[in-house]
Amino acid sequence: MLPILLAACALDESDRSEVPAASQMEAGAWEGLIQRREIVSKPYHIDAMYASMRGPSGFDYANLLDTEKPELLWITGYKTEVVEAETKRPLSQEYMCHANLDFDAKKYYEHFPWAPPISGRVFTLSQGQQDISFPVGMGIPIRSDMELSLATQVLNLNLENIDLTVRHKVEIKFVRDSDLDPYRATHPGWDVVPLYQTAVQGFKALENARYYGVAHDDANADELGEGCGIGMSAIEGDVDEDSHGQKFTAHWVVPPGRETNRTNVTRFLNLKKDTRAHYIATHLHPMAESLTLKDLTTGEQVYQSTVRNSKERIGIDDVDIFSSQEGLPLQAGHEYELTSVYDNVSGKDVDSMAVLYLYAHDTDFDRKRTLKRLETAELEKPVKRKANPQPSM
Question: Residue 364 domain-assigned?
Answer without folding.
Answer: yes
